[in-house]
């Protein structure tokens, strides 16, 4: 798109000024208009004047844009803005008349009706020269050089770090590296850099090789875990509003995408669905963040050793319960309440008794538009596994919590106490919670006090009642949140996690609340900031202390770097016995203590502590000096919030609820609650069943079914084992009364009850074992559940104690893993989009010690190896014999030219900088590739050497034989010449002798000799005419050759040929009971030939010559006859050729009668099979979006839980409506060739070789058909290689004109070699690169059935052209494997040969790692061949049974006709016609039922499921009818 510039020329005149406007949609460059407007003219006036002057459409909306610095800054003028006043603010040079290229101008462009604006940045701004020219001319300040890694800064200061972050932020580059630490500046705006294409871009790349991104950290953690087999963790830190939650979502999304899990149980889908659910129930809008996490969470994603996700665990910390009942003016309650009230349907509003948001006391803030969020929440909950009844129960509890806020209190007029109301609110709460109104009122207005001898009921005061009401709401919501986390953990649980022997790898992502400093800070901020102190201490330990201690221990040269240590502040909180937490617990246990006494105790104990700042006496607050600054905490409600337990009266009320779900929420032990639920459901089921059975048995006393219920009346006294015995006895008694037990009784109500009883043992449901496991993993469940143990004398732990325990467990988990750090920075305090506040950012950089962090990363060594690890990883680069590792490693690093300051050798470790480690890694990769190439050369040389020796030996043998033959031929010719000469001389002498004797007889006049003697002597033997038989045989041979020149181009002709040969074989078997040797060979060879014909049914457009069929039949006969019966081969071949000639003549006559029908059917079929081409080579498929992304075509948002289209090759994402607008070619597939260009067949994507979705490339089909016709009996057909010269020649001809080439002129091994070459040269293999890891995982599954289903599910995801070609190839390999006895090619041998051709690893993969996957790829291909072989054999057996049944029916009809007497000829003819129709229909019905009963169903996973299609069935039925008709005509006499 051409962007039109505009410029303004301003003349300082008293009345008017001149403006020059350039529309951005102008057709000609430089086209614009000059306007003279008054100084007070507004933007609206200028726009109207410019539109009228330029003659543009006045119905469209327009806007006026002020452009500065060539588009570096653009400001849209409002309607009341004055353009002339804006000009006066420009530089002096820009105000005068200036050329167009100076960069200050006004632009007129179209606006959208929805108010959005399409900004158009000039291309020249992106060029460094233009920007530098602007800076030199004084228009803009000098821009700093861009660095994506702060460790590369030439001068390290706070100003340089801040300037780099600012410069990148304004260019919408929010991520920056500090070595392996990622700094993320929150833009408060969604950027389109999180689509799947970016996940693929950063996959398997070294950290720092590409632009900084959060996906780079995820990829680095994932591959570090796989390479080192060590757990990893990603710590995300930053203050509130810095974007931690969003970064966590992106990390989880990338980690699940990298796992390449494939089809299995959908754990990744569950993990991605858990995020929106937790955000809805645990996030809320605050003053600093619209989506602030009001709880901390640690998501641990578990992996198998192969890198496949196997499960996850979510642990939550300190939910902010007080937000439910009170919050700041600009803040809101939790998101889920607004989602429910705004997005619920009318039916749901009536069911949950929902009101408008402003009618709730807990929700009196303004709400945003959230109609779609409720639908997305529904989808996310379904992904996690929440059933619709469970979701309704959750929403009912939420509605009850909102109604609790509307409960009001009034003093009673007569008696003591409070009156609670209104009645409609109490009734709604009672209906939603399934509790009695009287008990609810009692719990909200009174409390019970236990004395030594009695229980006192005391009324609440007004303040106490309000506190009790809010306490009930908070406790109920907290219990609901804990239960949701528990169910999410169960959904994420994998059965492998329950087995301790299975090795575990994990990546943990910590998203904990950020540092908070509000106007009013309370107990929640107190705990949150303590957690941030602990997290900051952990980061300092990992980055500074442990690093420098390791340098000192290894004895390398190092100068310590000072860093701020916050251990003193942590001690202020948690040191025994005077820590703030311990003092808080002491005061919470004293009945007479107050918040004021607590504050006095704080001041008294820590008056000399530098981290505790004293406050005036009358101020109910204290100040703590945190690492991020001073924070003032209000002491109000500290004690109450620390002991915020669920009151006993409220627990008793909720336990009296009729809703089992509510009782489950407040249960002290989920395992015990679960067991009681099972027992209660079982007892109720038995009771209901007993009552129903008794009433039914009384109504039907004589019915045999009543015995079942009468026998089951006392089932409650039986155990589960006795139930099964009772079932057996009942069935036995039924047999005595009614004989055979009906199938209906076998599935009687007894079985239904047994299924109900054993329901909870199903694999995917909750069981006690999994619950115990989850409870042991999550610290917060163990702590919070203890709050409900009210029957024990020991007091439950306080909130601060629970929080410290869970935080200690978290830090222990983090210390066991290798950390990656993501520092999130809040760009401004007003939540403005793309606004960079220097003061706020600098403050965050200071308290996170970013300057010291970058300094230690610049001076330190990011890569550390022990000597053994270094020698193991870089063994290829080191000498063969390593005597002294230190010296050899030093020599290697020096030899590679690394500077001495970039590495050091310690006592036990090697220290390298990250850049030098990458250089070393690249050198290792090059050396490995060089070694692989050398090995390949040697291997090829050995193969060629062996081939050369074999050829030389063969040539020598041929020469010896030829010389022997030539010598013997010369010898025999000499002897023959001598014999001929002797015979000729003898005959000559004989003739002269006889001539003389005749002359002598004539002279003496004797006539006693007969002339026949002469004739007999001259021409001995009878006279023959040899030309008759020879000429006749020649004519027959010419006739046969002419008929065999035809080709089969229709699959129906194959059906007809198969049926014709079947009829001939039936006739042969019925005519003679004892078959001769010739007939036996003919019968067996023809049977195998028919199997080959049947296997060709799946070829959509066959091109098979009868000569090829005849040649294959002749080879088959020769193979079956062997050497002993070689004389029978010509007879069998002549017999088959005569049969084939008869079929060809009949087929020609049939085609003459219906040529148009075949053409029309083929035309319709080709039209039906033709599929539309993908847009520009893309292969799109739908998928559900889990995180907000952007459309690559229109750049608009794709919201979470929506459907989008993604290209499986280049990972392009777009809306469905944007498919027709795509103009970018697919980078993963080549475009189809344009018409008129030369067609290539090797090394071209399949999408460019096929015309329809289910067709096979012509070259591939031609070669496979030729191999099937001529090479199935060749030994080592695919193992042996053909001549390289002939292969190159055939390759060239196939590339040029594949239709004209005759494959009969080339050896079979040359053609099979080209088949493998064609597969290897595909840019994307048949089993594509994108599904490579999925096939490996499927082949690695333990169970055979699960492995087979996994492979076939991934086959369904292949592109249509790949699927059809792979299906044809596997079917060909099945035919080759069936002739293993002759060609010595088993399924395993074929899989070994073809796995590297059709299932090869991507080019970007490590060649050493890909060698380990050879066994898996071979197994995957072998499974396909074996499964298709099984399906093929099964179908052949079914077809054989059909033919046998047909032949049986025909023979029976023949026998009946032969036994008929002559006097009933006419009657029998009529009856036979009637019987023919009746028997045919009955036979078809019986045979189909019999076949359905005796034979298994066809496998849908088979690649040849289309063999027995509708056409084949129709042709078989028509053939049967022809036989009946022909037999009927024969019976007429």
Automatic annotation (TrEMBL):
Rho-GAP domain location: 1244-1432
The places in or outside the cell where this protein is found are: Cytoplasm
Q: Any idea where the Myosin motor domain is?
A: 145-925
Molecular-function annotations in GO: actin filament binding; ATP binding; ATP hydrolysis activity; GTPase activator activity; microfilament motor activity; zinc ion binding
GO terms in the biological process aspect are:
actin filament-based movement; intracellular signal transduction; lamellipodium morphogenesis; system development
Name a Pfam family for this protein.
C1_1
Q: What keywords appear on the UniProt entry? A: Actin-binding, ATP-binding, Coiled coil, Cytoplasm, GTPase activation, Metal-binding, Motor protein, Myosin, Nucleotide-binding, Repeat, Zinc, Zinc-finger
Annotated gene = mfsd14a2
Carries keyword Transmembrane? no
Q: Give the source's domain of life in one word.
A: Eukaryota
Source species of the chain: Sinocyclocheilus anshuiensis
Does the UniProt entry include the keyword Cytoplasm?
yes
Name of the protein in question: Unconventional myosin-IXb-like
All copies of the Phorbol-ester/DAG-type domain together span 1177-1226
Residue numbers binding ATP:
238-245
Q: Coiled-coil ranges per the record?
A: 1425-1452
Q: Please give the chief subcellular localization of this protein.
A: cytoplasm
Q: Where is this region: Actin-binding?
A: 807-829
Family of the protein in this entry = Belongs to the TRAFAC class myosin-kinesin ATPase superfamily. Myosin family.
* CC terms in the record's Gene Ontology section: actin filament; cytoplasm; lamellipodium; myosin complex; ruffle
What sequence ranges are listed for the domain Ras-associating?
Answer: 15-113
């Amino acid at each position: 798109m051409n962007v039109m510039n505009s410029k303004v020329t301003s003349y300082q005149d008293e009345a008017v000024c001149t403006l020059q406007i350039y529309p951005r949609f102008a057709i000609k460059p430089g086209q614009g208009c000059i306007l003279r407007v008054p100084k007070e003219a507004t933007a609206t006036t200028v726009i109207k004047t410019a539109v009228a002057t330029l003659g543009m459409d006045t119905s469209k909306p327009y806007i006026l844009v002020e452009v500065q610095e060539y588009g570096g800054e653009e400001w849209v003028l409002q309607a009341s803005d004055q353009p002339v006043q804006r000009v006066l603010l420009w530089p002096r040079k820009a105000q005068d008349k200036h050329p167009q290229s100076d960069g200050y101008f006004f632009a007129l462009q179209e606006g959208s009706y929805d108010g959005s604006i399409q900004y158009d940045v000039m291309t020249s701004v992106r060029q460094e020269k233009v920007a530098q020219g602007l800076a030199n001319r004084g228009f803009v300040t000098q821009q700093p050089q861009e660095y994506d890694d702060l460790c590369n800064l030439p001068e390290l200061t706070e100003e340089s770090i801040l300037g780099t972050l600012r410069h990148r932020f304004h260019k919408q580059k929010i991520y920056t590296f500090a070595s392996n630490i990622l700094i993320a500046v929150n833009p408060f705006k969604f950027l389109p850099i999180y689509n799947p294409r970016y996940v693929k871009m950063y996959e398997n790349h070294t950290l720092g090789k590409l632009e900084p991104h959060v996906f780079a950290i995820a990829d680095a953690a994932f591959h570090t875990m796989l390479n080192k087999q060590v757990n990893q963790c990603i710590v995300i830190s930053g203050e509130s509003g810095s974007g931690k939650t969003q970064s966590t979502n992106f990390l989880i999304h990338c980690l699940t995408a990298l796992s390449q899990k494939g089809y299995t149980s959908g754990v990744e889908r569950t993990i991605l669905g858990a995020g929106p659910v937790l955000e809805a129930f645990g996030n809320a809008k605050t003053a600093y963040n619209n989506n602030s996490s009001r709880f901390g969470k640690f998501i641990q994603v578990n992996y198998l050793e192969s890198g496949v996700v196997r499960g996850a665990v979510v642990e939550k910390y300190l939910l902010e319960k007080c937000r439910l009942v009170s919050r700041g003016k600009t803040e809101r309650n939790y998101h889920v309440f607004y989602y429910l009230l705004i997005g619920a349907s009318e039916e749901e509003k009536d069911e949950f008794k929902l009101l408008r948001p402003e009618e709730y006391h807990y929700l009196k803030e303004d709400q945003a538009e959230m109609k779609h969020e409720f639908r997305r929440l529904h989808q996310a909950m379904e992904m996690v596994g929440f059933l619709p009844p469970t979701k309704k129960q959750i929403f009912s509890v939420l509605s009850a919590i909102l109604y609790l806020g509307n409960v009001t209190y009034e003093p009673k007029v007569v008696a003591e106490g409070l009156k609670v109301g209104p009645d409609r609110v109490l009734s709604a709460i009672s209906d939603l919670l399934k509790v009695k109104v009287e008990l609810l009122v009692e719990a909200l207005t009174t409390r019970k006090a236990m004395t030594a001898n009695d229980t006192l009921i005391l009324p609440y005061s007004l303040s106490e009642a309000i506190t009790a009401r809010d306490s009930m709401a908070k406790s109920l919501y907290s219990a609901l949140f804990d239960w949701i986390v528990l169910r999410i953990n169960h959904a994420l649980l994998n059965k492998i996690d329950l087995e301790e022997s299975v090795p575990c790898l994990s990546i943990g992502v910590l998203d904990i609340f950020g540092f908070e400093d509000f106007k009013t800070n309370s107990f929640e901020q107190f705990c949150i900031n303590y957690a941030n102190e602990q997290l900051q201490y952990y980061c300092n330990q990992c980055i500074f202390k442990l690093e420098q201690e390791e340098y000192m221990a290894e004895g390398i040269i190092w100068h310590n770097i000072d860093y701020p240590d916050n251990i003193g502040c942590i001690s202020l909180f948690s040191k025994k016995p005077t820590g703030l937490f311990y003092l808080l617990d002491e005061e919470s246990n004293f009945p007479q203590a107050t918040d004021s006494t607590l504050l006095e105790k704080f001041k008294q104990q820590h008056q000399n502590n530098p981290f505790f700042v004293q406050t005036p006496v009358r101020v109910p607050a204290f100040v703590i000096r945190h690492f991020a600054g001073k924070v003032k905490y209000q002491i109000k409600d500290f004690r109450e919030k620390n002991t915020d337990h669920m009151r006993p009266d409220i627990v008793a009320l909720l336990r009296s609820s009729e809703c089992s779900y509510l009782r489950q929420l407040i249960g002290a032990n989920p395992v015990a609650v679960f067991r009681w639920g099972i027992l209660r459901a079982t007892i109720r089921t038995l009771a209901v069943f007993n009552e129903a059975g008794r009433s039914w048995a009384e109504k039907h006393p004589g019915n045999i079914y009543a015995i079942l219920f009468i026998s089951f009346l006392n089932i409650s006294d039986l155990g589960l084992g006795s139930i099964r015995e009772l079932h057996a006895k009942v069935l036995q008694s039924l047999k005595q009364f009614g004989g055979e037990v009906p199938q209906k009784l076998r599935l009687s109500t007894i079985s239904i009850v047994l299924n109900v009883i054993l329901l909870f043992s199903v694999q995917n449901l909750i069981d006690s074992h999994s619950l115990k496991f989850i409870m042991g993993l999550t610290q917060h469940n163990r702590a919070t559940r203890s709050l409900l143990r009210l029957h024990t004398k020991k007091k439950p732990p306080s909130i601060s104690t629970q929080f410290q325990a869970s935080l200690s467990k978290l830090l222990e988990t983090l210390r066991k893993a290798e950390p990656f750090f993501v520092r999130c920075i809040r760009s401004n305090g007003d939540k403005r989009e793309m606004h960079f506040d220097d003061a706020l950012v600098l403050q965050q950089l200071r308290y996170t010690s970013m300057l010291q962090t970058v300094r230690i990363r610049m001076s330190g060594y990011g890569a550390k190896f022990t000597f053994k690890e270094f020698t193991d990883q870089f063994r290829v680069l080191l000498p063969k014999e390593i005597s002294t590792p230190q010296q050899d490693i030093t020599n290697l690093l020096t030899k590679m030219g690394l500077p001495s300051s970039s590495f050091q050798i310690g006592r036990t470790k090697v220290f390298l900088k990250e850049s030098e480690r990458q250089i070393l890694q690249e050198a290792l990769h090059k050396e490995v590739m060089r070694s692989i190439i050398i090995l390949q050369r040697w291997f090829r040389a050995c193969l060629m050497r062996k081939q050369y020796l074999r050829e030389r030996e063969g040539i020598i043998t041929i020469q010896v034989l030829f010389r022997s033959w030539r010598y013997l031929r010369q010898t025999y010719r000499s002897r023959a010449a001598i014999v001929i000469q002797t015979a000729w001389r003898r005959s000559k002498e004989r003739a002269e002798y006889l001539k003389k004797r005749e002359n002598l007889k004539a002279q003496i006049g004797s006539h006693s000799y007969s002339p026949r003697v002469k004739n007999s002597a001259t021409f001995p033997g009878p006279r023959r005419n040899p030309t008759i038989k020879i000429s006749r045989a020649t004519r027959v041979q010419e006739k046969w050759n002419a008929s065999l020149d035809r080709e089969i181009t229709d699959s129906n002709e194959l059906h007809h040929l198969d049926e014709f040969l079947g009829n001939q074989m039936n006739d042969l078997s019925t005519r003679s009971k004892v078959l001769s040797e010739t007939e036996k060979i003919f019968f067996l060879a023809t049977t195998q030939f028919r199997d080959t014909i049947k296997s060709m049914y799946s070829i959509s457009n066959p091109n098979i010559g009868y000569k090829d069929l005849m040649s294959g039949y002749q080879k088959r006969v020769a193979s079956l006859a062997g050497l002993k019966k070689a004389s029978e081969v010509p007879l069998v071949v002549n017999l088959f050729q005569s049969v084939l000639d008869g079929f060809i003549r009949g087929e020609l006559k049939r085609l003459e009668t219906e040529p148009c029908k075949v053409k029309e059917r083929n035309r319709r079929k080709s039209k039906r099979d033709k599929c539309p081409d993908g847009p520009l080579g893309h292969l799109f498929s739908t998928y559900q979006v889990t995180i907000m992304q952007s459309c690559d075509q229109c750049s608009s948002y794709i919201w979470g839980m929506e459907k989008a289209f993604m290209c499986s090759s280049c990972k392009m994402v777009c809306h469905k409506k944007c498919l027709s607008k795509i103009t970018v070619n697919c980078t993963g597939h080549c475009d189809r060739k344009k018409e008129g260009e030369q067609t290539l067949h090797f090394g071209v994507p399949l999408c460019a070789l096929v015309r329809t979705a289910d067709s096979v490339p012509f070259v591939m089909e031609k070669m496979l058909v030729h191999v099937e016709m001529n090479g199935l009996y060749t030994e080592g057909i695919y193992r042996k290689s053909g001549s390289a010269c002939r292969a190159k020649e055939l390759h060239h001809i196939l590339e040029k004109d594949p239709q004209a080439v005759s494959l009969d002129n080339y050896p079979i091994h040359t053609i099979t070699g080209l088949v493998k070459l064609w597969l290897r040269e595909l840019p994307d293999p048949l089993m594509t690169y994108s599904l490579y890891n999925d096939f490996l995982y499927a082949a690695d599954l333990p169970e055979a059935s699960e492995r087979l289903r996994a492979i076939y599910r991934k086959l369904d995801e292949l592109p249509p052209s790949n699927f059809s070609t792979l299906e044809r190839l596997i079917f060909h390999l099945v035919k080759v494997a069936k002739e293993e006895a002759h060609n010595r090619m088993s399924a395993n041998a074929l899989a070994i040969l073809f796995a590297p051709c059709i299932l090869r690893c991507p080019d970007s993969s490590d060649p050493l790692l890909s060698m380990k996957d050879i066994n898996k790829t071979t197994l995957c291909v072998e499974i396909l061949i074996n499964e298709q072989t099984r399906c093929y054999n099964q179908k052949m057996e079914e077809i054989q049974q059909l033919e046998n049944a047909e032949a049986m029916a025909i023979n029976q009809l023949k026998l009946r006709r032969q036994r008929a007497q002559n006097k009933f000829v006419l009657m029998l003819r009529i009856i036979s016609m009637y019987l023919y129709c009746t028997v045919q229909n009955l036979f078809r019905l019986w045979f189909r039922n019999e076949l359905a009963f005796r034979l298994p169903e066809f496998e849908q996973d088979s690649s040849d499921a289309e063999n027995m299609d509708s056409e084949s069935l129709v042709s078989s039925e028509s053939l049967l009818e022809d036989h009946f008709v022909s037999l009927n005509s024969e019976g007429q006499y």
